[in-house]
Amino acid sequence: MRSARYTLAIVAMTTTIAACSSQELPATTPAMTVDVPSVHATTATVPLLNDLLAAYLESETPADPAPANYQTRLDQVYRGDVAYFITNHLPVDSPLWAAPIAQDGLAVVVSASAGIENLTLDQLRAIYQGRITSWQEVGGAALPITVFSREDGSGTRAEFERMVLGHRTVTRNARLAASSDLMVRSVARQIGAIGYVSLGFGAVEGVTVVQVEDVAATRQNVALGLYPLRSTLYIAGLREPEGGVRAFIGWVQSPPGQQAVNRRYVSLMGER
Fold first, then answer.
1. Which of 48, 112, 160, 161 has the least C-beta neighbours within 10 A?
2. Each residue of 40-55: pLDDT tens digit?
3. Nearest-angstrom CA–CA distance, 25 and 23
């Protein structure tokens, strides 16, 4: 357990979250009038923040007009421009205060032209290292593979590299996509392309979400711990929150908040 990380405990939660602090903060149900909490999103977590604020404030107002990647948000936190942000990446040695709020999976997406429905982790690793360059080598179409990766500083990229590449590097031939939305659209447009996005972005026309190790990238398989590319989503900042942000995080971890999480992600208690 890291001394700088804490977990806001849900009074009504029956499932224990591993590695939680013993500190307990009460879950809060929003009052009739609530302030918009000062919480921002990374590009991969925009859908989650939108869903949470829509439920919390009973409004469909977009949550974050200027989403940014993990490194940009981290820099903003240290400068004092942003107080808290939702991230799918948090290094083991991070000094940030953080509370887990959801589970997520990284979906591997390929263009429909690739003719692929499943990849092993070894195959995925070899593709991103540039050692496999044709879909035919993994049972697909006779097409060259176009690799898309997120930009340096992206939390999604950091998580993908942690789970798939380890200390290996992405091929120099990879094209960069500056957001999750751009990643999906780029893969859909480019014949023979491959990329990765948060499950919260879902599938789009022209894109196939492939199985990894014969396990489908579904919310249920993430909840059951079956899908291999899983991560935890956190609200993170420099210090333990107070006031409106504290109330918001308590609500997010409560059953009503976790129900909002389940719209496109996976709650801490699993799919409900």
1. 112
2. 999 999 999 999 999 9
3. 7
Q: What are phi and psi for residue 154, nearest 5 degrees?
A: -75, 135
SS3 of residue 251 by DSSP: helix
- The two structure tokens encoding residue 88: 């799918």
pLDDT digits (tens, 9 = 90+) for 123-134: 999 999 999 999
Helix then strand then coil, in percent of the chain rounded to 5, is 30, 20, 45
**CA-CA distance, 20 to 60, in Å (whole number)?**
32
Give φ, ψ of 66 to 5 degrees: -135, 70
Tokens of 15: 């499932």
Strands 211-212 and 207-209: unpaired
Q: How far apart are CA 157 and CA 160, in angstroms?
A: 5
User: Domains of the chain: which residue ranges?
Assistant: 104-223
